């Protein structure tokens, strides 16, 4: 039975990846941070087969203990402070967790596998936010990185550190440059879920309006369930490598609003949406669109959910939740 250790188990991707690996017969361990973590219950209910270990990406000794007790074949480093807007307010904490945390995890893997550097396969959750002020359209594995947020800068550090450990120590280390990926499990602070929850509530007469920031930014949005499959495929390759994971389609926030409101038969959505300077960012990433050719050709990966399918999935989920608020988030 293969064994996997996942950091960031409480997030959207951690849950989907756990389900995927459990279905494939893995023994799955998840690293969970802090005493009385409020998300512990969610993980235990959603993926009861996962064994939870306590640790923190900023604490190398806790990561080494997690390696010793889980004895993993594969490590998926999904843990991060992942909300871009927050990273300006907490640049140093974001650097410690999202940037230096990768180095700590790589070091824990290296020390654990000192007798055979390729014993443990390592996945780093890199991000399209690294492309920032994009230097190519669409963005590929070799596009120059120009991050526009402390979060993006921290992810660039983690990305290059992963490559450096692969090249320096011969580790099987891969970096998945994942473009935005969403789902009914997305946190409500991210724009897609913020919209799907608010539109469901507006349709049900529970609120009148929704306050957003920049509506013209464009993102390449895919379905998180598809993207964790790409992570697993990277780990099955003979060598570690870097891959862009994206749909190759880009849409604006306005288009997300169009489809979400259309789902509840509201055409004139402008009257329900206000813009608030609080939600604009000091530096914006205007356009993201990825070229997933390498992932398609080398991993045999392909996205299964398109943009309208993603909006429909999220709207149906939030209408169900808002109609019956006692139902837990799926
Ligand atoms: O923003 C605009 C905002 O917060 C998307 C993370 O998973 O993907 C995610 O980062 C866009 C931005 O995601 C609001 O200005 C407008 O242009 O949903 P988001 P993100 O920043 O793209 C990457 C790949 C990651 O790695 C990250 O961890 O939407 N926007 N109005 C807004 N965004 C938010 N959050 N809230 C608004 O009211």
Structure overview:
The protein has 330 residues and is an alpha/beta fold. It has 2 domains: 3-181 and 222-245, Rossmann fold (3-Layer(aba) Sandwich); 188-219 and 249-288 and 305-329, UDP-galactose 4-epimerase, domain 1 (Alpha-Beta Complex). 41% of the residues lie in helices and 15% in strands. It is built from 11 helices and 13 strands. It has helices spanning 12-23, 40-46, 60-70, 86-89, 91-112, 150-169, 191-203, 224-235, 253-263, 293-299, 307-323; strands spanning 3-7, 27-32, 51-54, 74-77, 121-127, 172-178, 181-182, 210-212, 218-219, 222-223, 242-245, 251-252, 273-275. The strands form 4 sheets. A 7-stranded parallel β-sheet has the order 3-2-1-4-5-6-11, sandwiched between helices. Strands 7-10 form a two-stranded parallel ribbon. Strands 8-13 form a two-stranded parallel sheet. Strand 2 (27-32), helix 2 (40-46) and strand 3 form a beta-alpha-beta unit. Helix 7 runs parallel beside helix 9 (253-263). The chain is globular and about 65 Å long. The mean pLDDT is 97. The structure holds ligand F7E. Ligand F7E binds next to helix 7.
């Amino acid at each position: 039975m293969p064994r996997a250790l996942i950091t960031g188990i409480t997030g959207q991707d951690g849950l989907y990846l756990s389900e995927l690996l459990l279905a494939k017969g893995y023994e799955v361990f998840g690293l969970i941070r802090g005493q009385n973590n409020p998300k512990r219950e969610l993980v235990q209910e959603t993926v009861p087969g996962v064994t939870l270990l306590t640790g923190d990406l900023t604490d190398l000794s806790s990561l080494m203990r997690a390696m010793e007790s889980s004895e993993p074949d594969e490590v998926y480093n999904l843990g991060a402070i992942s909300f871009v807007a927050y990273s300006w307010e907490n640049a140093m904490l974001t650097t410690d967790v999202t940037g230096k945390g990768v180095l700590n995890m790589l070091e824990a893997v290296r020390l654990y596998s000192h007798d055979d550097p390729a014993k443990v396969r390592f996945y780093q959750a890199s991000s399209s936010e690294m492309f920032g002020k994009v230097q190519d359209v669409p963005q590929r594995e070799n596009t120059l990185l120009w991050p526009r947020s402390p979060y993006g800068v921290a992810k660039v550090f983690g990305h290059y550190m992963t490559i450096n450990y692969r090249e320096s120590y011969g580790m099987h280390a891969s970096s998945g440059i994942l473009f935005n990926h969403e789902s009914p499990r997305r946190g409500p602070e991210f724009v897609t879920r913020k919209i799907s929850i608010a539109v469901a509530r507006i349709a049900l007469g529970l609120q009148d309006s929704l306050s957003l920031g920049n509506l013209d930014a464009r993102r390449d949005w895919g379905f998180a369930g598809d993207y964790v499959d790409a992570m697993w495929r990277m780990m099955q390759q003979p060598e570690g490598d870097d891959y862009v994971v994206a749909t190759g389609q880009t849409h604006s926030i306005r288009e997300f609003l169009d489809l979400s409101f259309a789902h509840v038969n509201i055409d004139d959505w402008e009257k329900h949406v206000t813009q608030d300077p609080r939600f604009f960012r000091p530096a914006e990433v205007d356009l993201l669109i990825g070229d997933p050719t390498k992932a398609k050709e080398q991993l045999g990966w392909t996205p299964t959910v398109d943009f309208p399918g993603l909006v429909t999935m999220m709207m149906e989920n939030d209408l169900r939740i808002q109609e019956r608020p006692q139902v837990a988030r799926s």
